[in-house]
Design a protein that fits this description.
28 helices; two-stranded antiparallel ribbon; elongated; seven-stranded mixed sheet; 9% strand; 58% helix
């Protein structure tokens, strides 16, 4: 937990008291994110300086008391109990709901720790024309009490000085000799004494205008009919924005890496290192950074909705429906986020307290069709459904695409229902969520939260993605023995003599250009590479679902990312320009089954392939994130197997029906 050589401060408090905003205000960008030892709960820590003294701050998960019920609360409980004698515990309280917040404070005081009470949201108290006597409250509690407004940074300097000047342990709140052994009785005793103290310090004659406004808004946003319609409208806006707005920065990033690859390819000496940098590392990095715009936008929307207080209402609305499938009201956001990308969606399951419900959400989220499947769907649908085909006013290609998305949602709910029966957990399922007041987003908090989540994606999952990209590059670039040399000899001048014709070199005994010959060499090398051998090896396994070895290679290479399927097809079918999907489509439509001689991409094979990509776990980034979030190799392996079996069986049934 805390570092031994620094003055350590632990931030604790109830949920929605502005604790994370205070942490961001104290530390700014001097913060790092990790996990508490042995658990997946985020550990946010950072530093600040006051009077030339460096102070280490740890932001602990929110909790209502020191009687833990969830993984988050257990972490806070353990960290507070194990706090060193010189550590300072800062209890952050919402001053507009002080009575409830003080229960946790009094429990920590009775542990004999150094405690400072922070009263946040003082601006809301003043708006309600309420007053609190800070000096008297501090005197009655026997600890330092600091009023702040974390949103605008007011009172932070006073808090920093109070922390370094906190030299004595807190006074006991209730006498052990008079306290009852029962938890309920002890809690009643604490509240009784809290009431006595607040009656002397807090003037509550003013009207709570913000609470009244919140109630009026809730009457609309949580209405049994309007609430769902408004939610659907907000979702439509978010995903429309993610799909349309993110395409421009994604294109810029892709072009940027393309230019970087070209520059490196022309600058570095030809050879293995050149190839590794361009086709291994740069290509792998491109596959990571291209998701940053979608991740940034998605988390931006989620953090804004959370900061305004609306996300708690969404979870409340969806809890009744999702609970039938072993999920939680909080599962709705990760599931919907998966339509953009499963990686940030799985990361966002951390808000689900119940381990079983969080695990089920993680396990089924990748079944929702993500944006990476779109190029694959588009190419394959165009092979079997003519563009002109329509059903009334509906375009058949669009209907099939929508059907694939619906299948993903239905499969996710069905898989969740099965896992609900299989996964055993003694942890009680409950949905307890405080409905915070509505407020404007705290933009600094929004920015730092997005920065933190993108940083996790780039530096944690990114390391694994690049490593596997390099492995795939090796498998695709090398083959056993001297097979590559034999392929190059096959196309030497002795065999294919060519004459230079200005810019277009034509081979004498073929009608192919030099570029076309190079593409053939690349395709044959790919076939003879270790990746090609894998494709040939698995061909007997995938033949029953209508796939040949070339599709087998695509299954292997597109494990890096589903959209790699299109590029692999471009190489295999001798099309140099990978972005020319029309040419790929033509070549694939003309491809023959090397066993039967019949058309390879028949309706049976293509529909089988579509379903395979709809269900199979063809995404190493998702597996890497599942491993990171569950801290176990078991769950990503189970996910890989069950999704693979589901994909194979679905493809087999569809292939047999259409064949």
């Amino acid at each position: 937990m805390a570092e031994k050589n620094l003055l350590n401060v632990l931030l604790v408090g109830n949920p929605n008291t502005g604790k994370s905003t205070l942490f961001n205000g104290l530390t700014g960008l001097s913060q790092k994110v990790g996990n508490f030892p042995g658990v997946t709960v985020d550990k946010k820590s950072g530093t600040f300086k006051v009077n030339n003294q460096l102070v280490n701050v740890v932001d602990l998960p929110g909790t209502y008391s020191l009687s833990p019920n969830s993984e988050d609360e257990k972490v806070t409980h353990e960290q507070v109990l194990n706090a060193a004698e010189h550590d300072v515990i800062v209890v952050v309280a919402d001053v507009t709901n002080l009575k409830r917040n003080m229960l946790l404070l009094t429990q920590i005081m009775d542990l004999g720790k150094k405690v400072v009470l922070v009263l946040n949201m003082m601006d809301l108290l003043q708006k309600n024309k309420q007053e609190i006597n800070i000096e008297k409250l501090a005197s009655l509690l026997g600890i330092s009490v600091i009023p702040i407004n974390a949103q605008i940074g007011k009172g932070l300097q006073e808090l920093k000085e109070a922390v370094i000047n906190c030299n004595t342990s807190s006074v006991k709140f209730i006498d052990e000799k008079t306290s009852s052994s029962g938890v309920v009785d002890e809690t009643m005793l604490r509240y009784s004494k809290i009431n006595q103290i607040l009656s002397q310090c807090l003037n509550q004659k003013g009207e709570d205008k913000i609470a009244i406004l919140t109630k009026k808004i809730d009457n609309i946003l949580t209405h049994k009919i309007y609430g769902y319609l408004i939610f659907l409208g907000i979702l439509f806006t978010i995903f429309q924005a993610i799909f349309s707005w993110s395409s421009y920065p994604m294109e810029l990033i892709e072009n940027g890496f393309l230019l970087l690859g070209e520059w490196l390819g022309n600058t570095l000496p030809p050879g293995i290192f050149n190839d590794l940098m361009v086709n291994g590392i740069v290509a792998g990095l491109s596959g990571i950074f291209v998701f940053v715009p979608q991740i940034t936008m998605l988390f931006g929307f989620i953090v804004i909705l959370e900061d305004t207080g609306y996300m708690s209402r969404v979870s409340f609305l969806m809890d009744r429906i999702l609970r039938q499938f072993g999920l939680n009201g909080k599962s709705i956001i990760p599931l919907l986020s998966s339509t953009a990308c499963a990686v940030p969606a799985i990361m966002s399951t951390r808000t689900i307290n119940n381990f079983k419900e969080r695990l089920i959400t993680i396990m089924v989220a990748p079944l929702i069709s993500c944006s990476a499947r779109i190029p694959v769907y588009t190419l394959l649908i165009s092979l079997v459904i003519p563009k002109e085909s329509s059903w009334g006013i509906f375009n058949m290609q669009g209907l099939l695409m929508m059907g694939l998305y619906l299948i993903g949602f239905i499969a996710a709910l069905a898989a969740a229902w099965v896992m609900k029966k299989l996964i055993q957990s003694k942890e009680k399922s409950s949905f307890i969520m405080e409905m915070p007041i509505y407020r404007m987003p705290r933009w600094k908090n929004v920015g730092l939260s997005i920065y933190s989540k993108v940083q996790i994606f780039l530096f944690d999952a990114g390391k694994i993605i690049v490593a596997i990209s390099i492995v795939l590059w090796v498998l695709s670039s090398y083959g056993p023995g001297d097979k590559f040399e034999q392929i190059e000899k096959k196309y030497t001048v002795e065999t294919y003599d060519y004459t230079s014709q200005s810019d277009n070199k034509m081979y004498n005994n073929t009608s192919l250009t030099e570029n076309e010959i190079n593409t053939l060499i690349a395709a044959e090398k790919l076939e003879s590479s270790y990746a090609g051998m894998i494709g040939k090896t698995i061909e007997p396994l995938i033949q029953p679902i209508g796939f040949d070895w070339k599709i087998g290679i695509s299954l292997v290479t597109s494990f890096a990312a589903r959209e790699v399927f299109v590029g692999t097809m471009a190489t295999l079918y001798s099309v140099g320009d990978e972005d020319n999907t029309a040419s790929i489509r033509t070549k694939m439509m003309n491809a023959k089954n090397h066993v039967t001689g019949e058309k390879l991409y028949s309706k049976a094979t293509t529909m089988s392939l579509l379903l395979f990509y709809a269900f199979a776990m063809q995404c190493m980034a998702t597996l890497a994130v599942v491993y990171r979030e569950t801290k176990s190799i078991k769950w990503p392996l189970i996910q890989l197997v069950y999704m693979g079996v589901l994909a194979y069986l679905s493809s087999f049934i569809v292939y047999q029906i259409f064949a």
